[in-house]
């Protein structure tokens, strides 16, 4: 060691000076990154929900937002911006400053469906940095109590006998609720008419009133109406029965193999947000999702916490997009 130090001392002074500057610069850079991450957030954070209050996207955002607010010692504001299948909220987020203070609680279809569905989508996938898939869960096939169908097979038979006569409501064009209905029509070979709303909750209101006969909704919201007897549940769209409604068969058990769809909700933000901030939000969200109380809350909504990495989220979007591209084509769907 002494010999090494002696050798260094014999080097030209300018070489030593360069090394000292390099070490100092590296230390300042690391210190700056650590400080930037530890200082974020130093003001309130907004989570944009691109659908009306009361739907599943809204519920998930509020559960997670409340806990993140406590962890960050900052207010986390839920900002509902419904319309255009989530495009209004998505565009607002994409155009916000890339600093992590405006997040979007997106439904999966906004990235796996809308690029194929909308001719003039006001946002693109490259407008966002992807943080984490927060939670996922199955959908529930729900019908108005006056519909003369008590099983999925009976509903399919009814739809085939009355092409385009059955209306199904959704949270908006391109929403997960919309596409779950289109996927049902595609798998069953039936022709049903889509009625879009500005949020999932509004679709259920008209389902109960009989304005639409069918909604394939996120199980968190849809199960409330089934359990109260205000509507009838025919099937869940996951690979297994849901602990929330164990008496309801899967679509496969109900006679429609191949019909399986899962709703999921992810945090994203404007492209160009510092990686340190994105990584912090992802880690903190995963930390929140690991809490037993939060897992229990989500389970009560029929949801499974995820908390994956940005890379894993991007990969899942790429893999799922092919399925929806095919359904959009099969159903001849297009929106200006």
TrEMBL record:
Query: Would you say which domain of life the source belongs to?
Result: Bacteria
Recorded hits in CDD domains, A to Z, give: PBP2_Bug27 (cd13578)
> Which Gene3D superfamilies does this entry report, sorted A to Z?
Bordetella uptake gene, domain 1, Periplasmic binding protein-like II
A Pfam family annotated for this chain is TctC
Extract the InterPro entries matched here: BUG, Bug_dom1
PANTHER family for this protein: BLR1237 PROTEIN, TRICARBOXYLATE-BINDING PROTEIN
Q: Which family does it belong to?
A: Belongs to the UPF0065 (bug) family.
**Protein name, UniProt field:** LacI family transcriptional regulator
State the species of origin: Bordetella genomosp. 9
């Amino acid at each position: 060691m002494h010999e090494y130090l002696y050798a260094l001392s014999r080097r030209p002074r300018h070489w030593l000076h360069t090394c000292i500057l390099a070490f100092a610069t590296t230390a300042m850079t690391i210190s700056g990154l650590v400080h930037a991450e530890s200082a974020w957030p130093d003001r309130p954070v907004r989570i944009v929900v691109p659908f009306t209050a009361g739907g599943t996207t809204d519920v998930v955002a509020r559960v997670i937002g409340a806990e993140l607010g406590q962890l960050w010692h900052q207010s986390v504001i839920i900002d509902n911006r419904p319309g255009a299948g989530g495009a209004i909220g998505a565009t607002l987020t994409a155009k916000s400053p890339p600093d992590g203070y405006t997040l979007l609680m997106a439904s999966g279809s906004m990235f796996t469906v809308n690029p194929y569905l909308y001719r003039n989508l006001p946002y693109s996938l490259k407008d966002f940095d992807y943080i984490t898939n927060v939670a996922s869960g199955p959908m529930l096939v729900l019908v108005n109590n006056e519909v003369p169908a008590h099983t999925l097979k009976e509903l399919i038979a009814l739809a085939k006998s009355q092409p385009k006569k059955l209306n199904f409501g959704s949270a908006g064009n391109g929403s997960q609720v919309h596409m779950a209905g289109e996927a049902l029509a595609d798998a069953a070979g039936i022709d049903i008419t889509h009625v879009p709303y500005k949020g999932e909750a509004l679709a259920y209101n008209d389902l109960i009133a009989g304005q639409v006969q069918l909604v394939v909704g996120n199980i968190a919201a849809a199960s409330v109406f089934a359990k109260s007897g205000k509507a009838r549940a025919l099937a869940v769209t996951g690979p297994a029965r849901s602990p929330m409604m164990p008496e309801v068969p899967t679509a496969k058990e109900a006679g429609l193999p191949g019909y399986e769809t899962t709703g999921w909700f992810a945090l994203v933000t404007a492209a160009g947000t510092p990686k340190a901030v994105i990584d912090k939000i992802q880690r903190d969200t995963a930390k929140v999702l690991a809490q037993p109380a939060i897992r229990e809350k989500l389970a009560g909504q029929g949801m499974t916490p995820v908390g994956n990495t940005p890379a894993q989220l991007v990969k899942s979007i790429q893999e799922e997009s092919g399925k929806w591209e095919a359904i959009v084509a099969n159903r001849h769907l297009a929106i200006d």
